[in-house]
Amino acid sequence: MPKFAANLSTLFNEVPFTERFAAAAQAGFTAVEFLFPYDYPAAQLKQLLDENNLKLVLFNTAPGNVAAGEWGVSAIPGREAEARADIDRALEYALALEVPQVHIMAATVPPAADHQAYVDTFVRNMRYASERFAPHGINLLLEALNPVTKPDYLYASQYQTLEMAARIDRPNVFTQLDLFHAQLVDGNLSRLIRENAGRYRHIQIASAPDRHEPDEGEINYPWIFALLDDVGYDGWIGCEYLPRGNTLDGLGWFAPWAKKS
Ligand SMILES: O=C(O)C(=O)[C@H](O)CO
Ligand SMILES: [Mg+2]
């Protein structure tokens, strides 16, 4: 039985961020995820979660200087102190908000840069993060991003993040299987889901190629949800899509699973 989390960074964007918690709960979600919590005190976010009986199931480490093209700091050589401070801050938020997993953002790699140096830096910082988070039972996730949405990101293929997780070789490090990115880069989603069950601990969904509701495009999500049940996936499924129009108007696909108020 799939468990869905509303991504408040992309859904319910008709209202300000702090009003999206109530909107998600009223739409029948019991869990949420979003990109970054850092613009708000943890206590304020916890109150919003508690008031709406919502679990927070994922957020990311900080993105760095987005205006300068950065998308994560954990792989940038020479920025280790900043990356580890971001990891420590993410841990503080994860503990305060009772979050079971955090996506550690890697970095975009400038075309002329030494890619291996970025990989080696990321492995070291991930092992640092693993040691910080493991005593609290919190998992760390790596996510491949397709090169159209995010050019020059450290990894684009699911098979690269699976290999990276194996190289990091820590028991609380897994991949985040965003099926939108996976379809655009790797395809053969059934093989990915079947052959790597247990190595991904979070899933995100959106249509391909347009990243809208999961009721259009190339991916047959009802079939995918049944396959996920078949392989015993019991994690959350993050609804990280860009609504075609009003969020509520596009939630017909979610009706079978929405919590009835
Ligand atoms: O971009 C995505 O798909 C994500 O899930 C990350 O949170 C941000 O890149
Ligand atoms: Mg994603």
TrEMBL record:
GO molecular function: hydroxypyruvate isomerase activity
Example GO BP: glyoxylate metabolic process
Record carries keyword Isomerase: yes
Residues at the catalytic site: E143, E240
Record domain Xylose isomerase-like TIM barrel: where: 21-255
Highest taxon of the lineage: Bacteria
Keywords recorded for this protein, A-Z: Isomerase
Pfam families tied to this protein: AP_endonuc_2
Family: Belongs to the hyi family.
Protein name as it appears in the record: HPr family phosphocarrier protein
Organism: Candidatus Pantoea deserta
